[in-house]
Write a structure and sequence with these properties.
The protein has 13 helices and two strands. The chain is mostly helical and 294 residues long. The protein is globular and about 55 Å long.
Length: 294
């Protein structure tokens, strides 16, 4: 079975609603749903978070990052961390756990390496999107960070299936035109000239029941053109994705051995420029992306 056949098998499964998620994803999604309950207070949220040690560590790390700890006063417990970052950011942090869990826990060293690199890319995009939204596009930074966290869910899902379908790791481009075998059954969700990766990504986004604004932003990343200066959430995500120093290992449209020069992407923002803003926010991006990687 080659890559195209493997992708088509997974697309057919997605079309039937047969997405295969690791068991621990269901637990994390349960936590996310509980946080959506308006009656869920800080004490209840802290108890939920403490049930997942990795999540607890990440919440405290993000609360102590430069982006949320401008006065330099570290918090040392989950409850204080939640009080500092707020529930909207907390939901984004839970999303980091869900996305990371999507790739599973493969013992294959190649899959592990690709998963780690993909998560490094994801964390950088999320941190950059947060800063760009706050300083450039003037959009909600928490929503932008959330969009950055989930923008590669399709790729994480593909990596979770790589042991079953080793051809997914072949060097052929993931982004390729996909033609469904039964056009009628795909009429509601299929987009002309859509890649199999995008179709699978949309299916995963739908399964996770993400906000439509976030879904639209991720789709802008798949199909949109970068606007300069950026205005929308999709523009914000596109720019953050391009500025991230680590490329997605599954994005064959870029050369993973090269690092983009941010000086080539610049424009005026108020009294400054994009590059001056990124320079001023360098510590924020660095500590926030590192916190997401905990």
């Amino acid at each position: 079975m080659d890559r195209t056949e493997a992708l088509n098998c997974i697309v057919e499964q997605a079309n039937r609603g047969e997405l295969v998620f690791p068991t621990n994803v269901a637990i994390s999604l349960k936590i996310q749903r509980a946080l959506d309950d308006p009656d869920c207070g800080t004490d209840a949220a802290a108890k939920l978070v403490l049930n997942e040690p990795l999540l607890a560590a990440r919440v405290v790390a993000i609360a102590n990052s430069v982006a949320y700890n401008r006065m330099g006063h570290d918090v040392t417990n989950v409850k204080s961390a939640i009080a500092r970052i707020g529930f909207r950011t907390l939901r984004s942090v839970v999303a980091t756990l869900v996305v990371r869990q999507l790739a599973g826990t493969s013992k294959n060293s190649r899959i592990q390496a690709m998963t780690n690199k993909l998560w490094e890319h994801t964390a950088q995009v999320a941190a950059l999107a947060q800063v760009i939204a706050r300083r450039v596009t003037r959009l909600d930074p928490d929503t932008a960070m959330f969009a950055g966290i989930v923008h590669e869910v399709g790729s994480f899902y593909l990596l979770s299936r790589a042991e079953e379908y080793p051809a997914l790791l072949e060097a052929d481009p993931l982004v390729q035109e996909f033609t469904p075998t039964d056009s009628d059954s795909f009429s509601d969700t299929f987009v002309d000239n859509e890649s199999a990766e995008a179709y699978i990504g949309r299916a995963v986004l739908r399964k996770l029941m993400l906000p439509q604004a976030v879904v639209d932003a991720v789709e802008a990343l798949w199909f949109g053109l970068r606007a300069m200066p950026p205005e929308t959430l999709g523009d914000t995500l596109l720019l953050a994705n391009e500025l991230a120093p680590t490329h997605s290992p599954l994005d064959m449209r870029t050369d993973s051995n090269t690092t983009p020069y941010t000086s080539e992407i610049d424009f005026v923002v108020g009294d400054g420029t994009l590059n001056s803003i990124l320079k001023e926010s360098e510590d924020e991006v660095k500590t926030l992306s590192a916190a997401l990687l905990v």
